[in-house]
UniProtKB/TrEMBL annotation:
Protein name according to UniProt: Mannonate dehydratase
GO molecular-function term, one example from the UniProt record: magnesium ion binding
Keywords: Lyase
Pfam families: MR_MLE_C (PF13378), MR_MLE_N (PF02746)
PROSITE patterns to which the protein is assigned, alphabetical: MR_MLE_1
EC number: 4.2.1.8
SMART domains found in the cross-reference section: MR_MLE
Biological process (GO), any one: carbohydrate catabolic process
SUPFAM superfamilies given in the database record: Enolase C-terminal domain-like, Enolase N-terminal domain-like
Tree of life domain: Bacteria
Alphabetized InterPro entries for the sequence: D-mannonate_dehydratase-like, DgoD-like, Enolase-like_C_sf, Enolase-like_N, Enolase_C-like, Mandel_Rmase/mucon_lact_enz_CS, Mandelate_racemase_C, Mandelate_racemase_N_dom
Stretches assigned to the Mandelate racemase/muconate lactonizing enzyme C-terminal domain: 128-263
Source organism: Demequina lutea
Amino acid sequence: MKIEGVDVIITSPGRNFVTLKLTTSDGVVGLGDATLNGRELAVASYLRDHIVPLLIGRDADNIEDTWQYLYRGPYWRRGPVTMAAIAAVDMALWDIKGKVAGLPVYQLLGGRSRRGALAYGHASGTTVDALFIAIHNLLDDGFKAIRIQTGVPGLAKVYGVGNDQLAGQKYDYEPAGRTAVPIQEDWDTAAYLRHIPKVFEAVRAEFGAALPLLHDAHHRLTPNQGAQLGRSLEPFDLFWLEDCTPAENQEGLRRVRSQTTTPLAIGEVFNSIFDYQTLITEQLIDYVRSSATHAGGITGLRKIMDFAAIYQIKSGIHGPTDVSPVGMAAALHLDIAIHNFGIQEFMVHNERTLEVFQTSYTFIDGLLDPGENPGLGVELDESAAAAFEYTPAYLPVNRLLDGTMHDW
Ligand code: CS2
Ligand code: MG
C-alpha cells in the first residue's frame, strides 16, 4: 500500500489549524495534526516543500521506518517545526493502519489499560469570586479535575485568565489574539508569588480537600522562585504545578525538586525525548506535558512515555485548543493504551472547529474516551475547512513592569 496523495490543509475556524491528509493507493485516508500555534505556516511549508516529495510512492505500512527516515534523514534533528511535521505524518500513518485493520488506534498500541482518561478543564477568574463561578461551571459540566488561574492584583491582564463568566457560561478563552503582531501583557513575579497561595487557600476552603487542582506558572519563575511557589502551595495538595521555570535548562529543576514535594509537570514546549533526558533520569518531574502534535506524533510521544515509565513518571498530555481535534484524538488513544497515564488536559474546541473536524471521542462523567471508530476517529470536512481562511494570530508577549521582555 503506497502513499499516493499528500495534501496540507490550513483552516481557521477560530484558531489556525494545519492538517496533513495522506491518501493511499487503496484510497484509504489518514489525517495528522501539524499545528504549531503562531508559526503555523512554517510547518505547512516544511511539509509542502520538503516532506511531500519524500512521501509520494512510499510504503504506508512502515510507520517506525518513516519516522526514523524523517527524523534522521534531513541531518537537522528536532525542533518544533520539524517535529510537528513528523508528528503529522506519523498520526496520519497510524490513522491509515487503524482503518485498514478496522480497529481504533489504541488497539494497535496494545489495547485498553483503563475505562477512560481523567480530564482536567480550565477555570479562571480575574478575582476569586469570578474564579469560583468558573469552577462551578466546570463541575456542572462533569469535570473532576480543574486547573486554576487568576488575575494578580496590580496587573492589568494575566495570560491564561479569560473573561469572567456568568453562572452556566462556558469557558471560551482564546489565548491567541487574531492580530498581525502579538499584544503585550505585563508581569510582576513578586506580586504573583504573594497572591497565588491565597487563591488556593480560598479554593480549598470552598471546594474541599478532594478536588484535584492544577496550576500553570507558564515558565515565568527562576528555580528558586519555583521552589518557593511549590513550598507555599504544599498545604493545598496540588495535583501539579506546571512549567514553573523555562525548563530548557533541565538542571535548574534540581533546585525546585530538592525544595518542594509539590508535584511538577513540564514539557508542552519540548519536542523530543532528549529534552527530557535529565528531567526523567534524575526524576525531577512527575508528569510529561508534551502533546503528540509537538513531540513527533504517537511514535515520538510513546517513546518518551515508555522512557518515563521506568522512573514512575506519568503522562499529562497537552490538550489546549491549539492542538487540533486530530491531535487530541491521537493523545486519547495513547492515554487509554499506556500504563503510566496521569491526566489529560481538555480545553473544549468551539462549535465551528467541531464542524470542520468531526470527532468520535467522548467526555462522560469526567472521563475522555477515543471511541471505537477505526483509526483515530476524526474526519475532516474539507468544504467546511475551506470556508475559514488562515488569519495571523499570536500568543501575547510578556514584559516586566519596567519593560524588560520576560519568559512565559
Ligand atoms: C497552556 C497553553 O494549556 C496550557 O497548559 O500553557 O494554553 C499554551 O500556552 C498554548 O497551548 C501555547 O500554544
Ligand atoms: Mg501550560
